[in-house]
What does this fold into?
Amino acid sequence: MFALQQTNVKRQVSINRLSTDILSMIFYFVHENVEDDDPENELPIPLLLFRSALTLSHVCRQFRSVALALPKLWSTISNLQNPNSIKHSILRSRDSSFHVTLKLTVNTLLLPHGEKPSGKPGKKDAACIKKIREQSSRWQSFDLALHIPHDAEDDLDHILPGFVGSFKNLKLDTLEKLTVKIDGWFSGSPGNNAKVNKMFSSWHLPSLQHCILIDFVPSTPISKSISVLDITITDGSYTEDSLLVDDLMRFINHHPNLLELYLSIWDDAFDVQEPGTVKLNTSLLRKVRIRAVVGDAAESILCILRAFSLVALKDVTLEFDLLHLFELQRTTGHQEMHVETLQEQLSECVEELAMHTSLKSFTLRIGRKALPDAFSKCKILDFVFKRLGHLQHLSISAPDFPPPLIDTNCDIALRSL
It folds into this structure.
């Protein structure tokens, strides 16, 4: 908006002379980039979007007329709004699809008679959820989050039944994207998984294409129509029983139409004491990205890659953050040992990928978090060129690593580097 105002001043253009079509384009641009317009604003995105539409409609009569005629400006609804503003958005959105965000915390859950949380939303949230649920046949995206602080995880068993009951039997005919985040999930009892599974199994999701799961991995499929699956594990350090790689692979195998898989492992969340035995059999899967913080070793990443041995992968990205590696030991001797271990594990990962003759594109990113000269003797990039010579596209970002020495006799099929 500031840039637009400056342009008007310099060119002496009256914004009142802009056509409705031009104003509409500007309004959509402002609305879609509301987060970038004020990066220091700490308000949740759904509230920013609603306030953006509200602000545009209160500038002048012309702006109001244009803003109220653009249903997409009012298509984001959330329990973070008050019930009246939700009603206003529903009215102004007309037949436009909705982007829904429901974020619940322990503090917003009802505490009857000073007892344990029931999981049933409080009065305000119940009213919001009721209005939003009535429009479930128009949802295009749904972001569902339950935040449970670690000092309140003992209440999880009491919260989940009511929480699950609030969202059962949703008819989501037009839903294309689903995001689910349940903090504290891994510290709950095994029975909690069954309760949440029942919630998902009660949903009607015929159009779901993209699913994002954060700190939550159910044991049953979300929807067999999913083509893009994104799983992030950040809460592993609080788990009583680490998530097994085999458990993750079993869940992924429930989605036969999967084309793309994104895994982000930001903690020591996996138990890899024994090699994984479950192999993926998703025959359509072609693109995989694995992002991880590397601790003592990259064993979990290697274990995951071995599970892809039966899949004809075409595009693989590996991203490693090395910060944790050098927080473990800061003496030079220990660092050299960890660097040697890392190189060995990365070499094994590349060796595993070399078995995929179908692989056409490989991207390797290794975060710049090392101490000076820590990787000066690391030859992993040489190994990439040596073992993955059949690639057509190769992208490497590893600023702390020495450049590879490429043998001129190597048969390299690269088209882009």
User: Anything to note?
Assistant: The first helix runs from residue 2 to 11. The radius of gyration is 25 Å. The CA atoms of residues 110 and 122 lie 5 Å apart.
